[in-house]
Design a protein that fits this description.
Chains A, B: Residues 441-552 form the Nicotinate phosphoribosyltransferase C-terminal domain. The structure is a homodimer of 567-residue chains. With 567 residues, chain A is an alpha/beta fold.
């Protein structure tokens, strides 16, 4: 429902072509992603270009980043769909124009007439598919179009790609350390950076390999599976079993009614506390917790999952949970499991598993030992890694703060640099070589080796012939002369695809579904050589330029050197 | 425009009272802040409460945090207005209910009838005023109402307060280290966590003491002043002055027209390069940069601000800027200044200032030496502190990534804990004492000393008499028996005010404007004892409970101890 107004915002534009495309692509997920969501200086520049008659100059910009996040050697590219939706709906409303006039009173009226008319029908967007594994310096997107318009896209594009790619990468890293067999649940809504930070986090964590989210709105918007259990407050809200007015529970098959489920639970609790195999494990348990668990089971007999650490996990939470689970079992239901939200998760999960197994044996309840143990409480890559090293019995991890805020590195430094204008290549120099941009409108290829792993990415000038499988090609480091190697690829993949053809009549790649993008991400990570992805001292993946592009970069660099000529 | 649909979403609710209030308060800034923006388990709990007939039990929850962020000893509270707007508009749409039914097929239909009917007309919200300086453990908000409804507010409230308070605090810390006289500009849009992360950042950085933002949409939504200059791409987009078709500029007073402003600039550049006092400072400059500056000045003669580091600050950017600024001066205009975005900002600002002063003297241009120098490039608290220690000539700081993502600590751990239900106090225990909640519906006071500084915050049971100025009162640490002190306040301030009276008929405090909240924040920070606010080893501010509340906490703690009684 949130995005319902955006298409009409776009359709008040006079130009039918962009609005027509908008209709196919849909509105941005976030209704605040409007054409005003940009930096003020982009409008200043648009005005200066317009004043100088340069606004329609054909510019080519590359969007890329310079360094992989989280100390790793890979990044997952995400946010493309939102960028395409953004340009499909890009149009200034009357309200926008009035506001811009009020904050830029020095600008001529004719400039605002120009702004009123622009859309992205004349812009072309080439992009690596969303969900791909990507590396520094290689353009994730190449955006071509009238310089004033494309400049207005810089800030929103960087905004939409930066956090999306960062959090998808973070999710993929969590998936890698947790292993394929564990369930990963995103619990970040309360700690995310605002409502939309949370919604984006849920979407992109799912893309990066998570299984579910607790965020209901994200479930609604993207169809992501929802998961979660009750909180401590639910347990605290109960004082005793007298607060449960209706204690009856019908058995799963509907054949009988247990009139007092709570008494059945109490009977089981007695048996657990007296059982030989569990002897000494338990003292007496907290009765308000027991009441809370019983009432929760009455509401969710087929999905009973209890948070067991409100009072004391081993002395109260576990026996109370087991009593309720056994009572449910009597009536044909199967409890889901427990969640641990504090304490030593490795130790507690192992002890809980022992009890579940002992109960399976003692009371002959098949599969009780396999009860799902979910762990939460400030988990991140490091703590999961530490749990793995210690040994644990956790089946599912609920991860919030560190995942969604990307706590260990809260931003990916995406940039958007001019590489060509009116067919003239441009370079951005810097005393820091890492900040020098790679000029020219480029094509980019990923070269695969015999074993199916990608070997190297190569950027070339647009006019150069594509690399071919089985043909030797020289790959050079863009800046270091001595770093170069011949590669004979077994397979060649062109990276940049056309997602928004503008007026070029190139075939447009359709936007895939979230599930498809997630699948691509999983598949690409599996194809990557394991040493690029490992946590400790990963090997950098090689990114190169063709010999021709190398020569060109360095000749342009000389021409643009700090000291120019006086005309 | 983004928020335009939210009121109608609210008004489809049947209950006129909440919708009526909604009308006064307005819609949430972010249209995605809808009633579905919560954790799935809040709905599970709502159902379990409803099944047990407990949903209308009157619950009291406290929202608070446990530790000040960024290694500091203070926090600025923000996000209240968005919470009040959220509850004013809290209502499930038909679409929401259909979705909830689809993901909770195990719930009875009558529960969804219940959800259809609920709103926040029966909820009371008491809060510390937005923009106040706050401390750990003291409730920022107290929310009372039917337990199932208030539980649904937990996640959105924590989401809306957490990042808002964190980034406002971060902004206030940057203001503190930069000093009052510097201009602080928020440049975070491109690196923020999504569109709304950016918009919130702009709002709350302004609240925390920033002067302006580059984010146009935030300027539009909140009336925050907009600032910014061109980017490197603008400079790179020019090759030579031939690209400026119309070189004429009318003088500021309109009395004459300079037909070739670019030639005037070139004349000034020659004079600068030949001037005795500047001798040896400059070589020759980059001509495409000069063309870009001249064209920008033609568009913005009254607001000329140039980014001077595209090629080489001292050898190209500064002399090119000065030539354009002097040419503008000939025509009665005053240039604004420069921005440095790379290199040694302390050194470059000092060298640039020397040149500006030399030009003032050499060419007798009054105030040229006072040209505004703005610095950007990955600035944060530490780098500004380091610049201050080295000495610099920067007048304005443009701060992005580290500010808006709260890079050094990306989340504030706000929690929302049940403290009372049906007038019975509740406590959440934990093996970690810092995580034990302070039970009871409480009133909170700030006690001020003779010098006007706040001395201590005290929480008391609602039934206790308020502390009075001039009367001695015992303030106890909530958990450590030995920590206690008598205080005689000079002035007493009650912290929690009624912002949403529900059905209580208490007078409601109106929501202040953003400017007023910003003023409150500035004033509160000035009133704070300097040792609480300093960067290095700040003194913790004391937070206490009354003797009566202390006794009560500890008796309840004993009662709720892990081992309970079997009934």
């Amino acid at each position: 429902m949130a995005a319902a107004t955006a298409p009409s915002t776009a359709s008040d534009g006079a130009n039918g072509s962009a609005a027509g495309k908008a209709h196919q692509v849909g509105a941005p997920t976030n209704p605040m992603a409007t054409a005003l969501l940009t930096d003020q200086y982009q409008f200043s520049m648009a005005y200066a270009y317009w004043k100088a008659g340069k606004h329609a100059d054909r510019a080519v910009f590359d969007l890329y980043f310079r360094k992989n996040p989280f100390g790793g050697e890979f990044t997952v590219f995400a946010g493309l769909e939102e960028c395409i939706k953004f340009i499909a709906n890009f149009k200034f409303t009357k309200h926008d124009i009035l506001f811009l006039q009020s904050v830029m009173p020095m600008c001529e009226d004719a400039f605002f007439d120009y702004l009123r008319k622009i859309d992205c029908s004349d812009v072309e967007v080439y992009s690596i598919p969303e969900g791909s594994v990507v590396f520094p310096k290689v353009p994730l997107m190449r955006v071509e179009g009238p310089v004033a318009v494309v400049q207005l896209l810089e800030t929103p594009f960087v905004n939409l790609i930066n956090y999306a790619s960062l959090v998808t990468t973070n999710a993929a890293r969590h998936r890698h350390v947790a292993g394929k067999s564990k369930d990963l649940l995103e619990f970040g809504l309360r700690r995310a950076q605002g409502p939309d930070g949370a919604i984006s986090a849920s979407k992109y964590c799912f893309m990066g390999g998570f299984d579910a989210t607790s965020n209901v709105l994200a479930g609604n918007l993207f169809g992501i599976p929802l998961r979660g259990t009750h909180s401590h407050a639910y347990v605290s809200s109960y004082m005793s079993r007298d607060e449960i007015p209706d204690k009856a529970l019908t058995s799963k098959d509907g054949s009988r009614v247990c009139k007092d489920f709570v008494s059945l639970v109490k009977e089981w609790l007695q048996k657990i506390l007296l059982a030989d195999s569990l002897c000494g494990v338990f003292g007496e348990t907290n009765q308000s917790e027991l009441a809370a668990f019983a009432s929760y089971a009455l509401a969710f007999p087929s999905n009973f999952l209890a948070l067991v650490d409100t009072y004391d996990v081993m002395r109260s939470g576990i026996p109370n949970f087991c009593a309720v689970a056994l009572a449910l079992h009597d009536l044909g239901y199967k409890a889901s499991g427990i969640r641990l939200d504090s304490g030593d998760l490795a130790y507690l999960s192992i002890e809980a598993r022992k009890v579940f197994r002992a109960i399976e044996k003692e009371f002959n309840v098949p599969a009780f030992g396999k009860m799902i143990i979910t762990a939460s409480n400030d988990l991140n890559e490091e703590t999961i890694d530490a749990l793995n090293k210690q040994g644990h019995e956790v089946d599912a991890f609920g991860i919030g703060t560190y995942l969604v805020t990307c706590y260990s590195q809260a931003a990916l430094g995406c940039v958007f640099k001019l590489v060509e204008i009116n067919s003239r290549p441009r370079i951005k120099l810097s005393e820091d070589v890492a900040k020098v941009s790679i000029p020219c409108k480029k094509r980019c290829f990923r070269l695969y080796g015999k074993e199916g792993y990608p070997l190297v990415d190569i950027m070339m000038r647009e006019s150069e012939p594509s690399p071919k499988a089985g043909e030797r090609i020289l790959c050079r480091h863009p800046f270091l002369e001595s770093k170069r190697a011949y590669v004979v690829p077994q397979h060649v993949e062109e990276l940049l695809q056309c997602y928004w053809p503008g007026t070029s009549n190139k075939p447009r790649v359709e936007l895939p579904s979230l599930e498809e993008i997630r699948g691509r991400c999983m598949q690409q990570l599996e194809k990557l050589r394991p040493d690029h992805i490992r946590r400790l001292n990963p090997t950098p993946y090689k990114v190169s330029v063709s010999a021709k592009l190398y020569e060109f970069i360095h000749s342009l660099w000389l021409n643009e050197a700090p000291v120019g000529e006086l005309q």
